[in-house]
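A.,

Following up on our hallway conversation. Structure tokens first:
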């Protein structure tokens, strides 16, 4: 077994001596346990999760779906880029959700603007679906559809070859379809990427790099 247990451990004794968990010699990716907990992955606003080390190829079509819960009005949700300009990006900026796509000819954006600035950042779960089909892009938030015209109809494929960064990205990594550098603070769950008939549910505990991210447990509510 090479990955950590997604659980809480308490009251440990070794040779009938209580282990002091309050002053450990070293700590790595261990968070406090919560009285009330929900399914999901907690992002503490300082880091990111990196998935698909060998690089994810968006190409002509992809559908991204996830659920998020936050009280912050800014934060990166997901980015897949390339060394060139091709990329896709999902982010929350000033309480709006933006879905950016660049198939090589220029960035286009579908934006969902809620009625109130904080209505998506109210600490409740919201469902997001972002769809790229050749040159067409659309965004569905809690059942509300937004799509945008794309003047670059000849350009249909986002030739990405970098990992999927969720909730943020490292300072030395270029993201061509994200405007924000703010790491997401809150909870994410049910991240699914679909290409044609192939559907992949991503487990954050399998990420090859996790910083400030705690898989499988979300505090019941933020105060």
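Then the amino acids I'd put at each of the 223 positions:
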């Amino acid at each position: 077994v090479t990955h950590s247990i997604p659980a809480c451990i308490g009251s440990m004794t070794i040779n009938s001596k209580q282990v002091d968990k309050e002053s450990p010699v070293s700590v790595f990716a261990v968070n406090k346990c919560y009285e009330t907990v929900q399914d999901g992955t907690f992002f503490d606003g300082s880091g990111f999760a990196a998935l698909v080390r060998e690089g994810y190829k968006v190409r002509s079509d992809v559908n991204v779906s996830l659920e998020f819960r936050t009280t912050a009005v800014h934060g990166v949700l997901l980015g897949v880029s390339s060394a060139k300009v091709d990329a896709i990006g999902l982010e929350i900026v000033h309480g709006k959700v933006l879905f950016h796509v660049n198939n090589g000819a220029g960035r286009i954006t579908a934006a969902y603007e809620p009625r109130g600035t904080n209505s998506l950042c109210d600490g409740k779960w919201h469902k997001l679906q972002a769809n790229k089909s050749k040159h067409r892009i659309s965004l569905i938030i809690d059942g509300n559809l937004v799509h945008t015209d794309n003047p670059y109809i000849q350009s249909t494929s986002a030739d990405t070859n970098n990992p999927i960064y969720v909730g943020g990205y490292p300072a030395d990594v270029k993201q061509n379809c994200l405007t924000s550098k703010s790491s997401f603070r809150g909870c994410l769950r049910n991240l699914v990427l679909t290409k044609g008939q192939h559907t992949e549910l991503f487990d954050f505990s399998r990420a090859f790099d996790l910083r400030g991210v705690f898989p499988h447990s979300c505090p019941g509510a933020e105060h």
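The chain has a mean pLDDT of 91. Curious whether your intuition agrees with the design.

B.
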